[in-house]
Amino acid sequence: MSLSFSDLKLQSPLLTALAAAGYEQPTPVQLESIPAALANHDLMVSAQTGSGKTAAFLLPTLQRMIKRSEKPGKGPRALVLTPTRELAQQVEKNAQIYGKNMPWLRSVTLVGGTSFGQQIRALSRPIDLIVATPGRLMDHMRQGRIDFSRLEVLTLDEADRMLDMGFIDDIETIVAATPAERQTLLFSATWDGMVGKLAQKLTNQPEKIDIAREEKQGKIDEHLLYCDDSRHKNRLLDFILRDTSIDQAVIFTATKAMSEQLADRLYENGFSANCLHGDMPQGWRNRTLMDLRKGRIKILVATDVAARGIDVPTITHVINYDLPKQAEDYVHRIGRTGRAGRTGLAITFAEVNEYVKVHKIERYLNRKLPEQTIDGMEPTRKRVSKPTGRGRRSFNNNSNNPKNGNWNNGNRRNNSAGSGQKHRPNQQNQANRSRSGSPRSVSSQAKH
Ligand SMILES: Nc1ncnc2c1ncn2[C@@H]1O[C@H](COP(=O)(O)OP(=O)(O)OP(=O)(O)O)[C@@H](O)[C@H]1O
Ligand SMILES: [Mg+2]
Predict the structure, then answer these.
(1) Number of the ligand 1 atom closest to the C-alpha atom of 27
(2) What is the Cα–Cα distance from 130 to 310, expressed in whole angstroms?
(3) 139-156, pLDDT tens digit by residue?
(4) Which domains does the chain have, with CATH numbers?
(5) Which of 15, 302, 370, 445 has the most CB atoms within 10 Å of its CB?
(6) Is ligand 1 within 6 A of the CB of residue 342?
(7) pLDDT by residue (tens digit) across 321-341?
(8) Is the minimum distance from the CB of 344 to ligand 1 under 6 angstroms?
């Protein structure tokens, strides 16, 4: 018998809000984390993208706020730190959804790029929950606007990413300002390196929760497409974007300039596309994400600023136009689709000379990416380098990919029909296909 939210001892204001949000059952990470957090344990949690980690930390935190604080003052009772502004805004919005039957609950998002006025006003009255990026929170702390003496829970979402972004000193300063007896909830994709050391420092006998990927939690089909050069890449992209099964897509680029350039090009080609990157004014960033959420734009071209945490359930496709700089970003990027049990399709482009970068991602994943080609659009250039040496798996090994069982035998020397699995147009469109390379529809496994 599966457990319900009420079995987890969540109280009625939260239960009715969850029912209204359409949450029928806790996800595995919620099943493990909520009781442990309600029992006041510190937590170190890892679980796959889109598996409901936000509610895993917000629900037990909000449950504390059903009762009045025992301490005087107006400072926050809970603080959530996130690496990006958009994620902070999203987390606070979730808190409002889960806390909608707690009219006394007061929360605020403190992020850069927005005016101080509203934030200062919010902080001038008693506040329950602050969701913040470290930089702006520090600005307010320096001005003496935040009193952490009432703080009960500190949560770091995407902790590893915050450290990658160089927030370690800020985080240490913030933590030092909070009461030692607080509860600490840490969410991170990994505990390797610096983030593991930080976790040790911040937590007290933490419960470690590590939820392995489960098929039933959603499935992201992955395709790897090699291309000769950027022109070839653009042709592949145009072809894929004409797929009628695309509801909404996020395309990741390596640079801010490229995200703008590509969004402009797609817009000129008639797609409803817009870009998102960290140099845009925050107002634009907010409007762009809102337009995506409301379905007013179909394609978001973004840098890795959108790779972590962003939850837009209608995203059916993720396209890595450029390979991610760090292998782990691959997992987070593709995790923008296939959320909350849905399926999604992730397509990664790699130029033939980026073979080694692909190999790095595959080593991180400990599996090969299913390599495919599109009929008539196969790469013609030879793959430049081939990884060699210890610990590196060769592509020249006839190894079968468990997913499609159809790996290239050796280098992709030619564009013959035998190289890789074909990206097959669905049957209905197969009849319409022309040899000329004009737009055709490609099959998609993203069905919702
Ligand atoms: N118990 C539930 N039942 C149904 N939907 C849920 C449940 N819990 C969370 N969701 C939904 O699942 C989606 C993903 O949740 P969330 O953003 O918290 O995932 P995440 O694990 O934090 O992902 P990421 O690693 O990308 O940050 C959201 O749309 C959320 O509303
Ligand atoms: Mg998250």
Answers:
(1) 1
(2) 18
(3) 999 999 999 999 999 999
(4) 5-210 (3.40.50.300), 220-436 (3.40.50.300)
(5) 302
(6) no
(7) 999 999 999 999 999 999 988
(8) no
